Amino acid sequence: MAPYSILVSWMQKALVVRQYHVASVLCQCAKVAMSHFYIHYDLLEKNINVKTVYGYLDDSANQEFKWGKTYLHLQPDCVAMQDATAQMAMLQFISSELLKVAVPSTVHCDHLIEAQAGGEKDQCQAKDINPEVYNFLATAGAKYGVSFWRPGSGIIYQIILENYAYPGVLLIGADSHTPNGGGLGGICIGVGVADAVDIMAGIPWELKCPKVTGVKLTGSLSGWTSPKDVILKVAGILTVKSGTGAIMEYHRPGVDSISCTDVATICNMSAEIGATTSVFPFNHRMKNLAEEFKDHLVPDPGCQYDQVIEINLNELLKPHINEPFTLYLAHPVAEVGTVAKKEGCCTNSSYEDMGDVGGNVLVNACGPCIGQWDRKDIKKGEKNIIVTCYNRNFTEIVTALAISGTQPRSKDDKKFKLEDTYQHPPKDSSGQRVDMSPTSQHLQLLEPFDKWDGKDLEDLQILIKVKGKCTTDHISALKFCGHLVNINNLLIGATNTENDKANSVRNAVTQEFGSVPDTAHYYKKHGIRWVVIGDENYGEALEPRHLGGRAIITKSFARIHETNLKKQGLLPLTFADPSDYNKIHPVDKLTIQGLKDSALGKPQKCVIRHPNRTILLNHAFNETQIEGFHTGSALNRMKELQQ
Fold first, then answer.
1. Which of 57, 144, 353, 506 has its CA 20 to 30 A from that of 602?
2. Residue limits of the Aconitase A/isopropylmalate dehydratase small subunit swivel domain (predicted)?
3. Residue 579's CB: how many other CB atoms inside 10 A?
4. Cis peptide before 253 (omega within 30 of 0)
5. Which helix (H) or strand (E) holds 613?
6. CA angle 545, 577, 498 (to 5 degrees)
7. What is the pLDDT of residue 20?
8. Residue 602: helix, strand or coil by DSSP?
9. Which backbone phi and psi does 470 adopt, to 5 degrees?
């Protein structure tokens, strides 16, 4: 009995353990050449019927299944990256000395465009500011077999939906909103750079065996109720804690009333509650070759879920607008002004909620959604409301609608051609050169980090004890994200518990307060190893490792960033008792013991030894992640695998 969701990977053993027959959605047999869409559904059906080779599992015969504990080893169909994550991903891949990516991979230029004056002007400005990065990504793509979508192509997850998603694909994206591809019944999962590089290098992708939350939809959407309101309802029920580590599977009868783009919106926004991904079953809106095999792309009757939510779409849901960073804090449209005055929050929504209010249509990019604003119309600090539709509709869509009715013409009455922003990698790249200056201030080739000496970590200085949320918005900006030395924005938005200030920490040696990056640089220069104490849903990897960090100890991690930490040789540890967070003070020095046994695959526990107290910690390393910690980074591990 299988929820359509998901992980076909689970196959044979999952049958015995949980009654999942494992829906075919993740079958490796659904081989597809990106841009060609040749899908072997017949082989997919054969594998399901004989119940032998279960799809994307790298080694189904020896795969262990313990939900929420063991790791699945999978072979995805393809990888997608945006221009911010792609910089470090391509630099790591280059350092591996491999000749070509092992799976179809794409780069999409959408993150480095800053929203300021409007679409055309902002796009031109981005090209003027970032030519070095764009040229690097284009030439590296041509060299290593990666497709390249130039600035102006559109947002990564919409391009995936329109060009690469199909029922049953397992698509991995180095962008948290990759689940948008679920609009066409795909299993599209956001990952960190380290995971993306592993897949590109042909290394099986590791995913902690997820639980499945079923969302039963009844009735149908009507009136001003939008798909956004559905996911806001789900988010209000679950919150991030309940959503993390689960796959959200929406099922009938209500799903048949929701369009592809609306389904994509729900899947996209599900990422905000920590879900691994979201998926909808095959329906009449996905008709293509998949229709013949649709019985394998829906849940089995009577299938079992770890949790079930039921939402009646006929019951009027009031249109809501949600706050930034926190999806489950949503407000009825009528209350937004009052909330903004009280809390100083900004909000986002869709075209449906805004109506025709003369909004400025900005460039097709992720700018406003990720904080890339440069507004000139208000003074800094002045309270205001930003209501954006990022990104539910595109200028391309409007153009397509115009074309469907009549052939557009330019001012001189000549037919025009839409700009071609796609670059396919050449068949022969032997003579291709990667455009990257050795003196670049934006890009820097990587060197492996130092390896672990096999000993416990003693006398670790606390760099910062973070208070409250510490998402990617609080950790890293986009400037210099391909240059570890110059990025210099480590935890600059995180609040320090010692003084309730952002980017202000005490230097334990000089006793002076300074920025987080400057203090970390000081510690690195003087050989002082350090640790970060985090709160809930924390993450970050490369810069802390580069600046001498050895461990991150938190109440909980974001899934993507926990994996990044492991693969770059940092210890992601959680408090066995979350209240122990309160026992640690910013001026403390910590010793972490028990690492040797843990790294040998023995107890999954280690401890902080501290005067007057011992604090128990958890970690969840598997064999290959332990190897990554031994070698110091994913880069070292890839080099050793090649040897």
1. 57
2. 461-577
3. 8
4. yes
5. strand 613-618
6. 60
7. 27
8. coil
9. -145, 70
Full strand arrangement of the beta sheet holding 307-312:
277-279, 246-251, 211-218, 307-312
Which amino acid is present at 364? N
The DSSP annotation for 41-107 comes to: HHHHHHHHHHT-S-TTBS-GGG----TTTSEEEE--SEEEEEHHHHHHHHHHHHHTT-SS-SS-EEE
193 vs 567: CA distance, rounded Å: 10
Full strand arrangement of the beta sheet holding 387-388: 330-332, 320-322, 347-348, 387-388
The residue count for the chain? 643
DSSP states along 254-291: GGGGS-HHHHHHHHHHHGGGT-SEEE----GGG-SGGG
Q: Cis link prior to 391 (omega < 30° from 0)? A: yes
* Residue 525: φ, ψ to 5°: -60, -35
What would the mean pLDDT of 354-375 be, rounded to a whole number? 62
The identity of residue 146, as a single letter, is V
3-state secondary structure 365-399: CCCHHHCCECCCCCCCCCCCCCEECCCCCCHHHHH
| Helix, strand or coil, per DSSP, at residue 198 | helix
Has residue 88 got a pLDDT over 80? yes
What is the bridge-based pairing of β-strands 307-312 and 320-322?
unpaired
The token duo for 355 is 């109506």
Which residues have C-beta within 8 Å of that of residue 439, sequence separation ≥ 6?
Answer: none
Q: CA–CA separation, 527 vs 512, rounded Å?
A: 18
Closest CA to 183 of 282, 300, 51: 282
Give the tokens for residue 448: 């492996």
Residue pointed to by tokens 């009280």: 342
Burial 330-344 (b: 16+ CB within 10 A, else e): bbebeebeebbeeee
Query: Could you give the 3-state DSSP secondary structure of residue 109?
Result: coil
Cβ(493)–Cβ(473) below 8 Å: yes
Q: Which of 518, 472, 520 is nearest to 493 (CA)?
A: 472
**pLDDT tens, 459-499?**
999 999 999 877 655 555 567 788 888 888 888 888 999 99
Task: Enumerate the β-bridge partners of residue 494.
Answer: none
Alpha-helix runs per DSSP H in 271-356: 336-343, 351-354
Nearest CA-CA partner of 301 in 23, 7, 13, 24: 23
